[in-house]
Amino acid sequence: MRVLFVCLGNICRSPTAEGVFRAHLEQAGLASRVEVDSCGIGPWHVGKAPDARAREAAMQRGIDLSDLRARQLAVEDFERFDYVLAMDHDNLAAIEAHRPASSEAVVALFLAFAGWPERAVPDPYFGDEDGFEAVLDLVEAASRGLLVDIASRLEASP
C-alpha cells in the first residue's frame, strides 16, 4: 500500500502529513506494509528541507522531518501510489488535472479521512507558529481516519 500527500510546495503541510502518518503506522505496526511520501504541485522548493517552523512544531511532538526533501508531483505518482491526498481544494484540482485516465488511485482531500470532506488543511507558510500547530492537529485527526481505512484494506487483501 502506498500513500502520497500533496500540497503546494512540499515544505509545510505535506511533509508534516508524511511524518505524522509514518508515526501512526509505526505505532500500529504497519510501517513495513505501507510506503509514505509527499510532494508539491509546483517546483519552487524541490530539494529543500521542510520549513523550519514545520520541523520545529513536529519535533515538539516527537516527529522528525529533517530527512525529508521537497519534490514535485509526477505523472508516475498516479501509477505508483494507491492514495494521492490533497491538502486543499486547489491542490485537489491540480492533482485531478494531472491525473492520467488509467489511474486507479484514491484521489481525495486528506481531511475527508477525519470526517471533514469539504475542509482543507490551511497553508501556514505566511502565518506564525500557531498555524503550524493547527496543521498538526488537523493532520493527526486525518491520519487516524486514514489509518483505519488502510488497515481495513490491508486486512481484506490476501
TrEMBL record:
UniProt EC number: 3.1.3.48
Molecular function terms from GO: protein tyrosine phosphatase activity
Classification via SMART domains: LMWPc
Source species of the chain: Halomonas saccharevitans
UniProtKB keywords: Hydrolase, Protein phosphatase
Claim: Chaperone is one of the keywords in the record: no
Enzyme class: hydrolase
Domain Phosphotyrosine protein phosphatase I: 1-149
InterPro entries xref list: LMW_PTPase, Ptyr_pPase, Ptyr_pPase_sf, Tyr_phospatase_low_mol_wt
Transmembrane residue ranges: none
KW Hydrolase (keyword) present: yes
Name of this protein: protein-tyrosine-phosphatase
Family: Belongs to the low molecular weight phosphotyrosine protein phosphatase family.
